[in-house]
């Protein structure tokens, strides 16, 4: 349990640091926007690590180190992108909620679905690049850590 908590903390910080590095490279000038993006990626990493860890443990149970490495890579990538994208979609949806129809009407459900789909598409196109400066280095380091853990 202690290693899972430490791993969650390290993964969340590395995802926030990766987003921050990308924003510095892009020369963002709005401090409020930088804080919001870094917090979004940090929260996504914090939520994703436990799910990725335990899913990879289930897949890698009793298997070789190579399988464990690949399982952890796949599970952690999928969980991190899913949670961060989901948080992005919730924030995106809350911004556009002002112009949507009455809650829980048929129109509202369509607007909710298409706004969320648009947000997830936008995150897939624009948001995934925030993992590239440091995120993949952290991913491989975390996968090597996972392989060394008892399964």
Describe the structure.
This protein has 151 residues and is mainly alpha-helical. Helix content is 81%, strand content 0%. The protein is built from 5 helices and no strands. The longest helix is centred in the middle third of the chain and has 32 residues. 30% of the residues are buried.
Give the secondary structure arrangement, pairings included.
Blueprint: H1 2-25, H2 31-60, H3 65-96, H4 106-127, H5 135-148
Give the key terms.
151 residues, mainly alpha, globular
Radius of gyration: 17 Å
Biggest β-sheet, characterized?
Answer: none
How many H/I helices?
A: 5
Strand composition percent: under 5%
* SSE topology string: HHHHH
Averaged pLDDT, please?
92
Work out the helicity level. over 70%
- According to DSSP, the number of beta strands is 0
**Quaternary structure state of the chains depicted:** single chain
Low-confidence stretches: none
What spatial form do the alpha-carbon principal axes imply?
A: globular
End-to-end separation: 13 Å
User: Helix/strand-derived class?
Assistant: mainly alpha
């Amino acid at each position: 349990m202690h290693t899972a908590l430490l791993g969650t903390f390290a993964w969340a910080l590395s995802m926030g640091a990766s987003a921050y590095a990308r924003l510095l490279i892009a020369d963002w000038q709005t401090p409020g926007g930088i804080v919001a993006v870094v917090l979004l990626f940090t929260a996504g990493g914090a939520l994703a690590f436990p799910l990725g860890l335990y899913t990879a443990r289930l897949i890698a149970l009793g298997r070789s180190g190579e399988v464990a490495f690949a399982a952890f890579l796949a599970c952690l990538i999928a969980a991190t992108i899913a949670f961060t994208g989901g948080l992005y979609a919730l924030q995106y949806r809350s911004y556009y909620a002002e112009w949507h129809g009455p809650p829980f009407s048929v129109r509202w459900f369509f607007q909710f679905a298409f706004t969320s789909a648009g947000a997830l598409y936008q995150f897939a196109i624009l948001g995934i690049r925030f993992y590239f400066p440091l995120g993949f280095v952290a991913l491989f380091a975390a996968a090597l850590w996972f392989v060394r853990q008892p399964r």
